[in-house]
Amino acid sequence: MNVSALSEFDLFLYHQGTNYHAYEMLGAHFMEKDGKNGVRFAVWAPHAKSVSVVGDFNAWDTRTHTMERIGDGEIWVTFIEGLEEGEVYKYAIEPQWGGPHIMKADPYGFYAEKKPKTASRLYDLSKYQWNDAAWQERKKTHPSYSNPMLTYEVHLGSWRRTLEGGYLSYRELADQLIGYAKKMNYTHIEVMPLCEHPFDGSWGYQATGYYAVTSRYGEPDDFRYFVDTAHANGIAVIMDWVPGHFCKDEQGLRHFDGMTLYESDNEQRAENWEWGTTNFDYGRTEVQSFLISNAMFWFEEYHIDGLRIDAVANMLYLNYGRKDGEWQPNKYGDTGNLEAMDFIKKLNEAIFKFHPDALMIAEESTAWPLISKPVYMGGMGFNYKWNMGWMNDMLSYMSLDPIYRKWNQDKVTFSFMYAFSENFVLPLSHDEVVHGKCSLVSKMPGDYWQKFAGLRGFFGYWMAHPGKKLLFMGGEFAQFIEWNYDDSLDWHLVEEYPMHTKMLEYSRALNKFYKENRPFWEVDFDWNGFEWIDCNDSENSIITFVRKADNAADFLVVLCNFTPEVRHDYRIGVPKKGEYREVFNSDAEEFGGSGVKNEGALHTEDVPWHDREQSLVITVPPMATIYLRHKDTLPFVKRSTPEEETDVLVVKGVETKKEKEPKKPAAKVSDSAQKEATKAEQSPREAAEGKKAHEGKAAPSKAEAVKKSSAAPQKKPKGGEAKKSVKARPRKAETAKGATKTAKPPKKSSKKKAAAQ
Predict the structure, then answer these.
(1) pLDDT in tens, 212-259
(2) Domains, in order of start, for the chain
(3) Catalytically annotated residues
(4) Phi, psi for residue 135 in degrees, rounded to 5
């Protein structure tokens, strides 16, 4: 970091809203002045009558270290010699009208006391030695648009906790979480907000210290170690960032110098009634410098790879979350926040000017156009947007009993009407597993077995749908209870219950398949990477489509069955004549499925189907997604080496060296537990073929079951009813008396509900 000399030019840019490194000018900086070591303090407080720096070093006496106005009088500065790193301090601000001093934390402070204390701490950001030069160079030649982007969204305080229930530190998380993410084949980690915040229940979305990484988990250099370790292991780091609103706590930005400063003078615009917070005033140029510099700060001082900008709709719409009479239209008489629009464009242009490979991801929940298009094309300048429409439609669809899905096929297909209008990320985020919405697996209808089958099939569809991917922690192993910010994920499920263990292995295998197959990520944002085979088989709730790589000869055929029916002799048109292989199946037994599959070679027939000259006849497994590859495309598949799958690099001090992969959080199921589970549970294959394991009666063979399931031929050309289907039944757990009962998921109550954002 280059500490600014507070030149007239720096001050001019700051007041013009174009100083994009204002944190080098304002705040507290260690430096030498007149041969003496100390700290220079600088703060923007234009309405203050006087300002002083107070702390333990002067017994919090407002008279000891008073500050002086410089330039046009809006910035206050002083130098205090002899201060050491870690000292706590605040600004004591005397309002214009006199009266008691207002005690404020440093808006540009780099570190803060642990809650419930609220002072800033002196911290020297110049000490850390980065080890990610190779990663930074690699990003320049590997654009995210045409590369895998599979993001694991994490709340650091509740991913995993210590045995005593405390937080893991940034360094402990680096060694455990990064190793886990790499083993699970994620490409990115998105951390929920880490700017300092006073209330755990806000999840970080209501900040007081925008430049201070939260002290809950350690010091600033500890979080740098976390990012460094991620990069050493080939994982990018995205951080949630909230430039829309800030909390009202007295040490924060609200009424900073006794009057409105970071917020608007217009109370209707300043108040955020939905979240009980205060909105930023984007029309004030110093606020623009503050926020754009803050975004730049995280890229340059913490080497993060991207920002996910929270609640963009709240920024763009004057009437967002407001009733009639609670908002005023803009000068054109409509709902757009003109100042916010200009700010967002300015923000994105500044970031991409300095960091062209950055990820700027908008969580924007409306149909506002061109969110992820460049400013020069009339867009807002982000390069990605969360696809909230897809998420809402699909979670609604997946929550339906399969009986009713045939009448709701449009929920699956509608997303393709706009799939390429933006650069979309398909989010299965924290917002969908809280406040009574249920966890992902709990949203699935049916019995215990069908819930897991439904989630596996849904994940398979999600992975094949155009767009980058994001999954909130816990979804990968099917956590049953909702997320609780105040407790660890239920890792005991993976340790004690085979279905959760298999779900975790399924997620790992699916992620690996995604990373190794270009059709799923190389052309995500235009029709060249996708074509329908059949979207009209609503009667069977089946869709089939093709995903293609940049080289169109490299393609995958995807089939999704959203019912618990096995479809035999099901015909689909395919793009190319020849031999196909089933290369992935969410219903595989090793994943907890029924084991219905297409073995060996599948040869096309010269039977026109789905407007194609050749077709395949396949068996469709229940509640499942399958991927098919033509044999000529197999050379396109990337094969991971054992080293890629197992080696994890951990940053140690200033050097990087290979170490053994950290042990993943979930322990293996014990031999005795596995034997008991084997005794208690009916075979998945038997369940799918509709067989019951009755004592003293042999179950029919698969061939007999297939024979019994034959019925009328599939309709042409829509691929209607296949031959008689067989419904997958729940796995059974035997009681001591030989009776059967449906296996129940384990229960673990949360300590308390997460507070609303």
Answers:
(1) 999 999 999 999 999 999 999 999 999 999 999 999 999 999 999 999
(2) 8-122 (2.60.40.10), 135-519 (3.20.20.80), 526-630 (2.60.40.1180)
(3) 310, 363
(4) -65, -45
